[in-house]
Amino acid sequence: MGRLAYFVKRLLLVIPTFIGITVACFLLTRFVPGGPVDLAVARMRGGGAGGEISAGAREVTGAISPEQLKAIRGRFNFDKPWYVAYWMYLVNDRLGMKGASFKYPNKTVWELIAERFPVSLIFGITGFILSYLVCIPLGIAKALRNNTPFDMASSVVVFVGYAIPAFAFGMLLKMFLSGTVEGMPDIFPHAGFISENYDRLTFLGKAKDVASHMFLPVLCYVIGNFAVLTLLMKNSLLEEISKDYVRTARAKGCSRRRTIWLHALRNSLIPIATGFGGVLTVMFAGAVLIEKVFEIPGIGRLSLEATLGRDYPVFMGIITLTAILGLLGNILSDLCYVLIDPRIDFSK
After folding, report:
1. How far is CA 151 from CA 83, 139, 146, 161, 264, in A?
2. pTM of model > 0.90
3. Reduced 3-state DSSP string for 84-115
4. Where are the domains of the chain?
5. How far apart are the first and last CA of the chain?
6. What rounded mean pLDDT belongs to the chain?
7. Which of 110, 125, 134, 304 lies at a C-alpha separation of 20 to 30 Å from 155?
């Protein structure tokens, strides 16, 4: 009953936490300079997209009347108090999803997100699963062979991977494996999610085409979590092996293999479970620069375009989706705790 009450309480806390996150982000869109109103005024005055006014356009600086400025502010909903506009985002626009994009006025925020969502989901889920499939066994192997040549050699690889940012690693992969540099082999596509002739390919051809486009970006996804997960698994297992209950089991005649695999390993997975909830946000976390490098039309690239272009409805829509999935992901992590170790009692 204590666990049920705890999870009900966590679910109820999602609401005020979500409101706090979205209010803070919404206020930023209202008061940070260089917003859509400033950009629209600059364009009307002959300035660039960045809000700068050219020397030849300074003569018409006063050409915008108060009525025109009011119309511009009304177009972007900046003529209302922030709390009224926030209520419209929350209720009228259905958490911002029914709002119209500033950059693509003929599409709602949800339509734009729905177009990019499957691509980011495929990359994110694949990278997430591969990270755990590679890092957990590697961490276990390093713990069981602690201070051996295998452990030291693999540590070098792990720390080199940790030292290279995922987007920089992606640029190196493009240089050496995608033929973007003269003389380098052209093995994998350098950009996009599918080829131009995708629709004319057979089923196996389509699968091969998608896999070839996914290989390098997914490798970058994995390298981003590679070192942290591997070392966390290794250190967690080493800590469990050194505890009294393991020594007691060994003293009672339990074999080393049985003690580690049936007792220590299960407890060592508890810290790893903190990342299980991240499966709900894999299409957002760390994807912006990778999608930019490989020109992937995903959620990360959409969020970057919305931020740079001051497309606040799209920005708020992505923040909304990220916040909801992130909060639910935290609850999922707690649930994973309970599944791994039923002795955990959240009521204390």
Report:
1. 57, 9, 6, 15, 19
2. no
3. HHHHHHHHHCCCCCCCECCCCCCCEHHHHHHH
4. 113-340
5. 12
6. 83
7. 125
